[in-house]
């Protein structure tokens, strides 16, 4: 991957670059005009050691979209307490799931695989007119470097695709913010389109339903209930107008309707609570224990808000949440993996991209 400084493109080094007609001999070569597709995910530390985790957590938890307390109040707590202790616990969580063979987190591995498959779909549909790349909101590769790389390859138009099915200010909005910051540094800005949330897209719902059906067909006896566990946000964000909660509820309802299930077959919960505020309820870690105590001894858990398995699914759900269920008397805990680079998921993402390049590429 090219890691270039914005505003200093090396146009002559791009494959297919040529001098404009009637240009003087010393005119730099200009790359063929293309459309860029930049998919974005939350991010990942470069390693699970203390300093890698501290850098990552500092960037993440300093984002005002994520923690919106006044800086004078929050930063002393973050720098003096949280970043002293949390890199150790978070590092241990990442260590337990780390892709040691590739030296990266599972989120990085999966995002690369998704990008490769999306690029192949775009090549089949549009030939060499589209360049597909990926970035992370926190960590590497940065949004800034990947925007610069696309511009260098002749992308005068860019479709920016945050891989969050449901919109939230702490996910989709902050990814878009980072894109706009990158554009502010460019002398010649490309035209951009940001992809909206796709929480109710029929192809996305179909991909989710197929993953559930596939897992249930291989699970005997059948789970008593499906827990749709979404990443949580403070209740205050909902009260201030964030649509995330409503979009999560609709995704669950559409999934239930596609599966043809009753209301008692599926439940919406929220995980990953952080800090002293009240967050969206019910909390997954508490709800799975309640379900076990209420006689639901066999459950399946799916995480529809995550486009790729990560520490919140591979460690939190499969370890902490599973443990809560089993300690409360649960007997059979089944985790349904994220859609990751499953072909049905890639098809759904490609359809969303095609809808957003309409008018640019037809």
Structure at a glance:
This protein is about 45% helix and about 15% strand.
CATH-derived architecture of the domain at 202-336: 3-Layer(aba) Sandwich
Rounded mean pLDDT is 93
Number of strands: 8
Largest sheet: 4 strands, parallel
Q: Which residue ranges are poorly predicted, with pLDDT under 50 across at least 5 consecutive positions?
A: 1-12
Largest beta sheet: what is the strand line-up? 2-1-3-4
Distance between the termini: 28 Å
What CATH calls the topology of the domain at 202-336 is Rossmann fold
Structural class: alpha/beta
Cα-atom radius of gyration: 22 Å
**Separate helix tally:** 11
Helix percent reads: 40-55%
One letter per element, helices H and strands E, the order comes to EHHHEHEHEHEHHEHEHEH
Which geometry do the CA atoms define? Answer: globular
In percent, how much strand structure appears in the residues? 15-25%
Give an overview of the whole structure.
With 362 residues, the protein is of the alpha/beta class. It has a domain of 135 residues: Rossmann fold (3-Layer(aba) Sandwich). The strands form 2 sheets. A 4-stranded parallel sheet has the order 2-1-3-4, with helices on both faces. It has a 4-stranded parallel sheet with strand order 6-5-7-8, with helices on both faces. α10 links the parallel β7 and β8. The chain starts with 33 loop residues before the first strand and ends in a 6-residue tail after the last helix. The N terminus is likely disordered.
């Amino acid at each position: 991957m090219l890691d270039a400084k914005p505003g200093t493109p090396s146009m002559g080094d791009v494959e297919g670059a040529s001098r404009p007609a009637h240009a003087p001999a010393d005119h730099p070569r200009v790359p063929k005009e293309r459309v860029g597709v930049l998919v974005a995910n939350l991010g990942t530390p470069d390693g699970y050691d203390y300093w890698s985790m501290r850098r990552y957590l500092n960037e993440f938890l300093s984002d005002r979209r994520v923690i919106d307390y006044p800086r004078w109040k929050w930063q002393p707590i973050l720098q003096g307490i949280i970043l002293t202790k949390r890199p150790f616990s978070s590092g241990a969580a990442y260590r337990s799931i780390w892709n040691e063979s590739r030296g990266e987190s599972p989120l990085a591995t999966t995002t690369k695989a998704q990008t490769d498959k999306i690029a192949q779909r775009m090549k089949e549909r549009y030939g060499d007119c589209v360049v597909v790349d990926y970035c992370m909101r926190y960590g590497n590769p940065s949004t800034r470097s990947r925007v610069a790389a696309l511009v260098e390859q002749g992308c005068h138009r860019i479709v920016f695709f945050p891989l969050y099915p449901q919109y939230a200010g702490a996910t989709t909005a902050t990814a878009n913010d980072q894109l706009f910051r990158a554009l502010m540094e460019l002398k010649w800005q490309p035209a951009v389109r940001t992809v909206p949330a796709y929480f109710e897209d029929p192809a996305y719902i179909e991909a989710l339903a197929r993953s559930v059906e596939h897992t249930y067909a291989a699970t005997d006896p059948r789970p008593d209930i499906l827990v749709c566990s979404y990443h949580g946000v403070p209740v205050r964000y909902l009260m201030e107008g964030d649509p995330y909660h409503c979009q999560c509820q609709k995704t669950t309802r559409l999934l239930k309707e596609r599966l043809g299930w009753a209301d008692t077959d599926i439940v919406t919960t929220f995980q990953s609570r952080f800090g002293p505020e009240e967050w969206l309820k019910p909390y997954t870690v508490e709800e799975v224990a309640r379900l076990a105590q209420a006689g639901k001894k066999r459950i399946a858990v799916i995480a529809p808000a995550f486009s790729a398995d990560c520490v919140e699914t591979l460690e939190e759900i499969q370890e902490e949440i599973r443990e809560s269920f089993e300690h409360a008397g649960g007997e059979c805990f089944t985790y349904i993996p994220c859609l990751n680079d499953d072909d049905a998921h890639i098809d759904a993402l490609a359809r969303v991209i095609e809808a957003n390049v309409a008018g640019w590429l037809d």
